[in-house]
Specification:
This protein is 30% helix and 22% strand. The strands form three sheets. The chain has a seven-stranded mixed β-sheet with strand order 9-10-11-12-13-14-15. A six-stranded mixed β-sheet has the order 3-4-5-6-7-8, covered by helices on one side. It has a two-stranded antiparallel ribbon with strand order 1-2. β5, α2 and β6 form a beta-alpha-beta unit. α7 packs parallel to α10 and α10 crosses α11. The protein is globular, with a radius of gyration of 24 Å. It starts with a strand and ends in a 7-residue tail after the last strand. Bound molecules: zinc ion (2 copies). One zinc ion binds next to loops.
Length: 335
Amino acid sequence: MYLRLSRRGQCQPTPRAEGPRQSHALRRRWVAGRLAAACALFVAVGGLEPVAAQAPLPIDADRTQVILLGTGSPFLDAAKVGASVAIVTGGVAYLVDIGPGAYLRTVEAAQRGVDALAWPTRLFLTHLHSDHVLDYADLLWALWWRREGQVTAYGPPGLAALTTGLHGAFAEDIRMRTEGSQPIVTRGYVPEVHEIDGTLRFEDERVRVIGFPVCHDSQAAYGYRFETADRVVVVSGDTTFCDSVVEHARGADILVHEIFSERGLARRTEDWQAYHRAAHSSPAQVARVANAVRPGTLVLYHQLYFGVSDAELVEEIREAGYDGPLVSGKDFDVF
Ligand SMILES: [Zn+2]
Ligand SMILES: [Zn+2]
């Protein structure tokens, strides 16, 4: 019997063709036990980088897939990190937003079998609120000195200034790594930045993307429509009811839409209620959009619960008159 290291860093016994001789069985078990202990120690002290043995995500590589990386809001929640949705098609991932915590979600997704999310490089930002962009720094800075592939980022005006600001903030990291003895192969922190002026129309061999203005208080904010060979996916971004969402979400197989709880909002002060009504969508508004569009599945994300549960939020949508397919999204949900 031998022991081998699996790709996930686990010690596994590899039985050879062994005879049934009982006299050697105890000794074999003793040797196997010692080898397993030595192997575990080897892994523990860093002889091999162990990879968390998590269940693979249920991905169908032959279809366009939507992976919710982060379904959270500015209210930090370890189970629902900052807003981020991955559209994976043809083995390539397109990210919509990268809020706080979302970068590590891409790492975990890659460890759980989504190869397209290992070092993603295509980013579309809905707007520059921090709950949607904080991990932009991680996306640019993670292992920048040896990472392959340049990040391409699309977003509203201000994205170039944000990028320049990050370069200033991390100037010392850049200086230390480039002026020391560290062998630098790439400068991954330098993205290709495109600020959207009006409506974005982007196309490559896998996808057509339309970035359309939405209604998010007074902010420059966009929703995105992705058309692939087999699916149409629309992400609302942050918006209150907006005709442009209805217009661009027609024919969507998956409509990922933000929402706040009407019952929950009633507990907030009047000034906050006014802000949220100007910036975000009530269940009645989401139901109105969904009834106009009739998506294959309506997926709620960026839920502002204000104390209600997922079940209550779904109930609010049903009471508002939408009876189509509906999921209140959680991180790592796959559609
Ligand atoms: Zn937000
Ligand atoms: Zn926002």
